Amino acid sequence: MIIKARSIVPGNVSGLALVSRDPISFYGGVDPETGVIVEPGHSLEGEKISGKILIFPYGKGSTVGSYIIYRLKKRNLAPLAIVNLETEPIIVVGCVLSRIPLVDKPEANVTTIIKTGDTVTIKSAGKEAWIKVDKNGK
C-alpha cells in the first residue's frame, strides 16, 4: 500500500512503525534521557520511540518540545521519521533542527491504517511524500 502525503522535512527512511491515535507532547511526555513515552495514560506510555517511524495525529504542549526533539536526536534517541495527520509548529521546528524526516496530511488516516510493527518506508522530496506500508513486514 502506498499513501501520498505532504513533505515538510525531506528524507528517505525505512523502519518499524510506532502508532498512536493520541497526540504527543515531547515536553513532559517523552523522557529525553531514554526516548520513552512517560505521559501517564498515553496509549504509548512505556514505549521507546527511538529508531521508529513515529505516527500520531498531531503534537501538543510547550514550545520546549522542539528542543526535546533536538535533544533526542543528539543523544541518538529520536524517531527515524514522524508522520502526522496535521503537523503543528512545535513538531516542525524540532524536526527541522534535528533533520528528522517529517510528513503530514496523508491522503488516508494513517493512525488507523498503519499498525505498530508494520514496516514503513518514507520517500519525500520537495512538497510530496510517499508512505509505503508493508503490513507486519509482509
Detailed description of the structure:
With 138 residues, this protein is α/β, with parallel strands linked by helices. It has a single domain, classed as Phosphohistidine domain (Glucose Oxidase, domain 1, 3-Layer(bba) Sandwich). The protein is 20% helix and 33% strand. The chain has four helices and nine strands, in the order E-E-H-E-E-E-H-E-H-E-H-E-E. A seven-stranded mixed β-barrel has the order 1-7-6-5-2-8-9. Strands 3-4 form a two-stranded antiparallel ribbon. The chain is globular.
Brief overview:
The chain is α/β, with parallel strands linked by helices and 138 residues long.
Q: Which whole number gives the mean pLDDT?
A: 96
Oligomer: single chain
- Gap between N and C termini: 11 Å
Structural class by helix and strand composition: alpha/beta
Beta-strand fraction estimate: 25-35%
The biggest beta sheet is recorded as: 7 strands, mixed, barrel
Sequence stretches where pLDDT stays below 50 over 5 or more residues: none
Order of helices and strands: EEHEEEHEHEHEE
Q: Note the overall shape.
A: globular
Alpha carbon gyration radius: 13 Å
- CATH H level: which superfamily? Phosphohistidine domain
The CATH topology label is Glucose Oxidase, domain 1
- Number of helical segments with 4 or more residues: 4
CATH level-1 class: Alpha Beta
Strand order of the largest sheet: 1-7-6-5-2-8-9
Q: Count of DSSP E strands?
A: 9
Helical content stands at 10-25%
CATH A-level architecture: 3-Layer(bba) Sandwich
Integer count of domains: 1
